[in-house]
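Weekly modeling sync, notes
Attendees: S.R. (lead), two postdocs, one rotation student

Agenda item 3: backlog of single-chain predictions. S.R. asked that every request posted to the team notebook include the full sequence so nobody has to chase files. The rotation student volunteered to paste the first one in as an example of the format we agreed on. Action items at the bottom.

Example entry:
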Amino acid sequence: MKTIRLICLSLIIFCSFCFLVLPQASAEVKARFDASKMGDMYDFDPNNPVIPTGDTIRIAVVASFSGPAAVVGEIYWICALWAAHDINKRGGIMIDGKKKLVQMIKADHQSKVPVCKKVCERMVLQEKVHVLWGTNGSHLMKVINQVADKYKVIAQCTAALSDELYDAQNFSRYSFMTSFSCNQIGNAAAYYYGQIRKKEKKFYILCQDYLFGHSMAKGFKDGLKQYYPDAEIVGEDYHKLFLTDFAPYLTKIKASGAEAIYTGDWIPDAANLLKQARKMGIDLPFVNTFIDEPNFLHEVGVEGTKGLVNINQYAAPNPAFKTHDEVKGYMAWNDLWRNRWTAPYNTWLYKHPAGNIGSYTQQTYWLLSVIERAGSTDPEKIIKVWEGDSYQIANGKVLTMRPCDHKTIQDLAAIVYVPPAEQKQSFNIPPFYYFEGCSNAGPIFKIPADKILPVADPALCK
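Predicted structure, as returned to the notebook:
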């Protein structure tokens, strides 16, 4: 306990200094996450959540809580639940002159389109939810948006990344894309390799064979044309979801002369892909978005994860800890992870409230901030606030909602994974590394928002 107190004290002193020397947020920010106002999270337990009922603000977390991607549902649940629990501990949100608590409701789509449609309609018609929050799979997010549009309820796209979801054909004024998009990711990866690193030139694309995977590949190819025209695509393949044998694809990659592999795969595919590649002796860097899950990274080990390049929507330039807010938010989460949470939330995956977990949590805070400033769950009032809104998340990054197509403009980051001894350039507090058993964030390169604006359909954004 004495050691922990000393660490906390050093954090406070260090971050007090940083807070004084860092520039303040720009005046254009309309709202921001303020950890100084956080409620006491001591009783937060994702396995035994305190969920209010009755006259509440009801949000359906639409995700795969069962099936082959059930772990993704677990991740979404703790992130959305954390933000809701915090707001509830503060007393809730003033809605039409009355304080209301936030109620999160699980909506299991099982990674199946027909189930997704059915469960979303049940959430709207029976549970009377005000927001549909989701999800893993652009084909499933498309269904969520269609239901939201039909019944005039708000949808928040926190994790489906296909740009086509918000083109003129699919656009719904009730849905808001608060995540990054495939085009932004692909352009960011190309910008990093073509404008910052300037080394590898031969790339192999391997993605999942559905809307998202093809959108990820297109974003990268478009980005290379703009930022790295000397680069070469030496191979391009697409595989079915939840594949267990990547050997045929990896054999082709091995023979291609590729210097790096670009993939949009998410777990469990991301884990199987990396583990099988390393077992086959392929030590090429993976340029990725979701090859960042610490449990399978530990299975691969320090050497097998060294050199991975993660295009990240949460990270900001080093060091990780700069302000009081970041310290308080981090310690609130990490203390509970160390001392109270049980399986599955006591694994390496949940140690740090950063990466995609940090993003999903902060995106949920943005939603709740918009509702609070609208003072209503009326979708028309929410739309009015959210269009053109800007929100500063915990680490200082600013998210701006483009009014014409409801896509978020933001900086991204390219994170290079390094062994534990080198992680202190990012994790700048004791013990000065994220993990001992695998490589993780070292150098972090900012990809400016104006270089990777989300693609806009001219029929919407003129």
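Discussion: group reviewed the output briefly. The domain at 24-180+321-409 is CATH 3.40.50.2300 (Rossmann fold).
Action items: rotation student to repeat for the remaining queue; S.R. to check formatting next week.
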